[in-house]
Amino acid sequence: MEEKEIQTFSKREQKKQLNRQNIINAAIQLFSSKPFSEVSMRAIAKDANVSPGLIYQYFDDQQHLFMTAFKIESTNLLNALRQTIEIQDDQLAVIARKYIDYMFRHDNLYQMMTYFMLENDHHGSVSAGLRNITDDLFAIFREALSKHLPEKQLKSAAQLFFASLNGILITYKNLPGRSQEATWQHIEHLVEVLVATIKRAYPE
Protein backbone atom coordinates (compact mmCIF):
# COMPACT_ATOMS: atom_id res chain seq x y z
CA MET A 1 0.00 0.00 0.00
CA GLU A 2 1.40 3.38 -0.98
CA GLU A 3 2.05 6.07 1.62
CA LYS A 4 -0.79 8.27 0.33
CA GLU A 5 -3.24 5.37 0.56
CA ILE A 6 -2.07 4.62 4.10
CA GLN A 7 -2.60 8.23 5.14
CA THR A 8 -6.08 8.25 3.56
CA PHE A 9 -6.95 5.00 5.35
CA SER A 10 -5.63 6.40 8.62
CA LYS A 11 -7.67 9.58 8.31
CA ARG A 12 -10.78 7.55 7.50
CA GLU A 13 -10.26 5.39 10.59
CA GLN A 14 -9.68 8.46 12.74
CA LYS A 15 -12.92 9.95 11.42
CA LYS A 16 -14.79 6.74 12.22
CA GLN A 17 -13.40 6.67 15.76
CA LEU A 18 -14.26 10.34 16.24
CA ASN A 19 -17.83 9.77 15.02
CA ARG A 20 -18.22 6.81 17.38
CA GLN A 21 -16.90 8.78 20.35
CA ASN A 22 -19.11 11.76 19.55
CA ILE A 23 -22.14 9.43 19.41
CA ILE A 24 -21.24 7.89 22.78
CA ASN A 25 -20.67 11.31 24.36
CA ALA A 26 -24.03 12.53 23.09
CA ALA A 27 -25.72 9.36 24.35
CA ILE A 28 -24.22 9.77 27.82
CA GLN A 29 -25.47 13.34 28.04
CA LEU A 30 -28.98 12.49 26.85
CA PHE A 31 -29.40 9.26 28.82
CA SER A 32 -28.31 11.14 31.96
CA SER A 33 -30.81 13.94 31.36
CA LYS A 34 -34.03 12.00 30.68
CA PRO A 35 -35.53 8.50 30.93
CA PHE A 36 -34.29 5.80 28.56
CA SER A 37 -37.62 5.59 26.72
CA GLU A 38 -37.54 9.32 25.94
CA VAL A 39 -34.14 9.27 24.24
CA SER A 40 -34.35 8.62 20.50
CA MET A 41 -31.56 7.67 18.15
CA ARG A 42 -32.46 10.72 16.08
CA ALA A 43 -31.90 13.00 19.08
CA ILE A 44 -28.54 11.37 19.79
CA ALA A 45 -27.54 11.81 16.15
CA LYS A 46 -28.47 15.48 16.27
CA ASP A 47 -26.38 16.10 19.39
CA ALA A 48 -23.48 14.12 17.92
CA ASN A 49 -23.72 16.09 14.67
CA VAL A 50 -24.07 12.96 12.53
CA SER A 51 -26.85 11.58 10.37
CA PRO A 52 -29.31 9.20 12.07
CA GLY A 53 -28.40 6.45 9.64
CA LEU A 54 -24.72 6.71 10.53
CA ILE A 55 -25.37 5.65 14.13
CA TYR A 56 -26.46 2.20 12.94
CA GLN A 57 -23.02 1.63 11.45
CA TYR A 58 -21.71 1.59 15.01
CA PHE A 59 -24.64 0.48 17.20
CA ASP A 60 -27.44 -2.00 16.57
CA ASP A 61 -30.12 -0.06 18.40
CA GLN A 62 -30.90 2.25 21.32
CA GLN A 63 -30.30 -0.52 23.86
CA HIS A 64 -26.88 -1.35 22.45
CA LEU A 65 -25.88 2.31 22.60
CA PHE A 66 -27.19 2.74 26.15
CA MET A 67 -25.22 -0.28 27.37
CA THR A 68 -22.04 0.92 25.67
CA ALA A 69 -22.39 4.32 27.33
CA PHE A 70 -23.32 2.83 30.70
CA LYS A 71 -20.44 0.33 30.66
CA ILE A 72 -17.94 3.11 30.03
CA GLU A 73 -19.27 5.12 32.96
CA SER A 74 -19.65 2.16 35.34
CA THR A 75 -16.25 0.62 34.50
CA ASN A 76 -14.59 3.73 35.94
CA LEU A 77 -16.59 3.26 39.15
CA LEU A 78 -15.75 -0.45 39.41
CA ASN A 79 -12.05 0.22 38.85
CA ALA A 80 -12.05 2.91 41.54
CA LEU A 81 -13.71 0.53 44.02
CA ARG A 82 -11.37 -2.36 43.20
CA GLN A 83 -8.33 -0.16 43.72
CA THR A 84 -9.75 0.99 47.05
CA ILE A 85 -10.52 -2.48 48.36
CA GLU A 86 -7.02 -3.72 47.56
CA ILE A 87 -5.23 -1.19 49.75
CA GLN A 88 -7.55 -0.61 52.71
CA ASP A 89 -8.02 -2.59 55.91
CA ASP A 90 -11.38 -1.10 56.90
CA GLN A 91 -12.87 -2.09 53.57
CA LEU A 92 -16.55 -1.63 54.35
CA ALA A 93 -16.31 2.00 55.46
CA VAL A 94 -13.95 2.96 52.65
CA ILE A 95 -15.94 1.18 49.93
CA ALA A 96 -19.17 2.80 51.13
CA ARG A 97 -17.61 6.24 51.14
CA LYS A 98 -15.91 5.70 47.78
CA TYR A 99 -19.15 4.55 46.14
CA ILE A 100 -21.13 7.48 47.51
CA ASP A 101 -18.38 9.96 46.66
CA TYR A 102 -18.06 8.68 43.09
CA MET A 103 -21.81 8.74 42.43
CA PHE A 104 -22.13 12.16 44.08
CA ARG A 105 -19.37 13.69 41.96
CA HIS A 106 -20.07 11.85 38.68
CA ASP A 107 -23.58 12.91 37.88
CA ASN A 108 -23.81 11.16 34.50
CA LEU A 109 -23.58 7.67 35.94
CA TYR A 110 -25.87 8.51 38.87
CA GLN A 111 -28.54 9.98 36.59
CA MET A 112 -28.34 7.15 34.04
CA MET A 113 -28.75 4.55 36.76
CA THR A 114 -31.56 6.45 38.50
CA TYR A 115 -33.57 7.10 35.36
CA PHE A 116 -33.32 3.47 34.28
CA MET A 117 -34.22 2.11 37.73
CA LEU A 118 -37.33 4.31 37.85
CA GLU A 119 -38.52 3.26 34.38
CA ASN A 120 -41.79 1.35 34.36
CA ASP A 121 -40.95 -0.51 31.16
CA HIS A 122 -38.37 -3.29 31.13
CA HIS A 123 -35.83 -3.38 28.32
CA GLY A 124 -34.57 -6.95 27.95
CA SER A 125 -30.97 -6.71 26.76
CA VAL A 126 -30.31 -3.58 28.83
CA SER A 127 -31.67 -5.18 32.00
CA ALA A 128 -29.50 -8.24 31.41
CA GLY A 129 -26.45 -6.06 30.81
CA LEU A 130 -27.10 -4.05 33.96
CA ARG A 131 -27.35 -7.28 35.96
CA ASN A 132 -23.86 -8.23 34.81
CA ILE A 133 -22.54 -4.87 35.98
CA THR A 134 -24.34 -5.01 39.32
CA ASP A 135 -23.06 -8.57 39.81
CA ASP A 136 -19.51 -7.18 39.62
CA LEU A 137 -20.46 -4.43 42.04
CA PHE A 138 -22.10 -6.87 44.47
CA ALA A 139 -18.95 -9.02 44.42
CA ILE A 140 -16.96 -6.03 45.67
CA PHE A 141 -19.58 -5.31 48.33
CA ARG A 142 -19.62 -8.96 49.44
CA GLU A 143 -15.86 -8.91 49.91
CA ALA A 144 -16.10 -5.75 52.02
CA LEU A 145 -18.98 -7.19 54.04
CA SER A 146 -17.35 -10.58 54.56
CA LYS A 147 -15.42 -9.38 57.63
CA HIS A 148 -18.66 -8.49 59.38
CA LEU A 149 -21.27 -11.00 58.21
CA PRO A 150 -21.57 -14.77 57.96
CA GLU A 151 -21.19 -16.24 54.47
CA LYS A 152 -24.84 -17.25 54.17
CA GLN A 153 -25.97 -13.62 54.55
CA LEU A 154 -23.51 -11.96 52.17
CA LYS A 155 -25.65 -12.12 49.03
CA SER A 156 -28.68 -10.47 50.61
CA ALA A 157 -26.52 -8.05 52.59
CA ALA A 158 -24.74 -6.85 49.42
CA GLN A 159 -28.08 -6.18 47.76
CA LEU A 160 -29.35 -4.35 50.83
CA PHE A 161 -26.11 -2.37 51.09
CA PHE A 162 -26.44 -1.31 47.44
CA ALA A 163 -30.08 -0.31 47.91
CA SER A 164 -29.28 1.61 51.11
CA LEU A 165 -26.45 3.60 49.53
CA ASN A 166 -28.55 4.46 46.49
CA GLY A 167 -31.50 5.32 48.71
CA ILE A 168 -29.36 7.83 50.61
CA LEU A 169 -28.24 9.37 47.33
CA ILE A 170 -31.71 9.55 45.78
CA THR A 171 -33.22 11.02 48.94
CA TYR A 172 -30.63 13.68 49.72
CA LYS A 173 -28.41 14.37 46.68
CA ASN A 174 -30.72 17.00 45.16
CA LEU A 175 -32.66 18.00 48.25
CA PRO A 176 -33.31 21.77 48.06
CA GLY A 177 -32.37 24.24 50.75
CA ARG A 178 -28.80 23.10 51.39
CA SER A 179 -25.44 23.91 49.89
CA GLN A 180 -23.64 21.14 48.07
CA GLU A 181 -21.08 20.94 50.87
CA ALA A 182 -23.78 20.67 53.56
CA THR A 183 -25.55 18.01 51.49
CA TRP A 184 -22.35 16.02 51.12
CA GLN A 185 -21.62 16.21 54.86
CA HIS A 186 -25.11 14.93 55.66
CA ILE A 187 -24.82 12.08 53.17
CA GLU A 188 -21.40 11.20 54.55
CA HIS A 189 -22.84 11.11 58.07
CA LEU A 190 -25.66 8.77 57.02
CA VAL A 191 -23.18 6.44 55.35
CA GLU A 192 -21.14 6.35 58.56
CA VAL A 193 -24.30 5.44 60.50
CA LEU A 194 -25.07 2.67 57.99
CA VAL A 195 -21.60 1.16 58.27
CA ALA A 196 -21.58 1.47 62.08
CA THR A 197 -24.95 -0.27 62.27
CA ILE A 198 -23.64 -3.23 60.27
CA LYS A 199 -20.52 -3.46 62.44
CA ARG A 200 -22.51 -3.33 65.67
CA ALA A 201 -24.82 -6.07 64.46
CA TYR A 202 -21.91 -8.30 63.49
CA PRO A 203 -18.71 -7.22 65.29
CA GLU A 204 -15.46 -8.69 64.12
From TrEMBL:
**Transferase: is it a keyword of this entry?**
no
Cross-referenced Pfam families: TetR_N
Keyword Signal in record = no
DNA-binding region, as residue ranges, is located at: 40-59
Q: Which Gene3D superfamilies match?
A: Tetracycline Repressor, domain 2
Where's the HTH tetR-type domain?
A: 17-77
State the UniProt keywords alphabetically: DNA-binding, Repressor
Q: What is this protein called?
A: AcrR family transcriptional regulator
Q: What is the lineage of its organism?
A: Bacteria, Bacillati, Bacillota, Bacilli, Bacillales
